[in-house]
Write a structure and sequence with these properties.
By secondary structure, the protein is an all-alpha fold. The chain contains four helices and no strands. 74% of the residues lie in helices and 0% in strands.
């Protein structure tokens, strides 16, 4: 049976959330590990990962993706938790890649790691709420 247009649209939003969650989680890992691997990145040809311009671009991408996915998720399931997690997370990310760059690497890393983890959690909750909200009870379902 072919999926309905609504089911196809929901799949795209779920994919967007999965990409956003993965990007946010990778951002958090990158930021947490950066102080430890800063010295070996040039040896591996990955020195661009330590560049502030790369990091700002990645945060901009992850922020835009998060806002689009989470606002649309809220419109579907009307649960505010993902947005309540994402907004302080996005604020920490922005502060971490702008103002905190002039402070120590530890302050910068803590801010962006915590921000990335909050945004990743927001995506995971958004996916869960979408799954629960989109579930249709049928004869095979225990709740049906």
């Amino acid at each position: 049976m072919d999926p309905t247009p609504t089911q196809q649209k929901n799949r795209w939003w779920a994919l967007l959330d999965r990409v956003g969650a993965t990007a946010s989680f990778l951002c958090a890992i990158h930021c947490a590990a950066l102080p430890f691997v800063l010295a070996i990145l040039p040896l591996l040809g990955l020195s661009f990962l330590a560049d502030h311009a790369f990091e700002r671009g990645f945060v901009l991408f992850a922020s835009a993706l998060a806002l689009v996915a989470l606002v649309n998720g809220y419109r579907r399931h009307h649960r505010p938790l993902p947005l309540r997690l994402a907004l302080p997370g996005l604020a920490l990310l922005v502060v971490g890649v702008t103002f905190a760059e002039s402070y120590s690497i530890a302050v910068h890393s803590v801010l962006v790691t915590c921000g990335g983890l909050l945004v990743a959690c927001a995506h995971f909750f958004n996916l869960r709420f979408d799954r629960v909200h989109g579930h249709v009870h049928g004869a095979q379902c225990a709740h049906g």
